[in-house]
Specification:
elongated, alpha+beta, transferase, three-stranded antiparallel sheet
């Protein structure tokens, strides 16, 4: 984040620390995920001549892009695989079973996606 901020690419950033406790206690307190998360809006440069809806002068030299990898992974699991992904795991609603997943790599494998470590992901 510091490197992105130094480059002037962060328009908005909110960080929430993990609130993880026992799953039973958490379920009684909230329906939201308890895991650490980062909400970002990035300021990305527009390619030359990329004016949208008007003259090039009316278009800024950058565009705002919200990145939400968790939401996209959940959408993919539901729409493409018919599975439910949430903070408790990956669930098959037809079989009424959870997939065994001890790591992020396991979730990607169950979804048939290539796993890349976070530092190598291009969002």
């Amino acid at each position: 984040m510091h490197r992105l901020q130094d480059q002037g690419l962060i328009l908005y950033h909110q960080h929430q620390h993990s609130r993880w406790e026992s799953p039973t206690r958490l379920a009684q307190q909230s329906h939201m995920d308890a895991f650490e998360r980062s909400f970002c809006i990035l300021r990305l440069p527009q390619p030359p001549g990329a004016a949208v809806g008007g003259s090039p002068r009316s278009c800024p030299s950058w565009k705002a892009v919200r990145v939400d990898l968790v939401r996209e992974l959940r959408r993919f699991s539901r729409k493409e695989k018919g599975l439910w992904l949430n903070s408790h795991g990956l669930f098959d609603p037809e079989q009424r079973t959870f997939f065994h997943a001890a790591s992020e790599e396991d979730i990607f494998r169950h979804l048939g996606l290539e796993y890349l470590p976070p530092e190598q992901r291009n969002a």
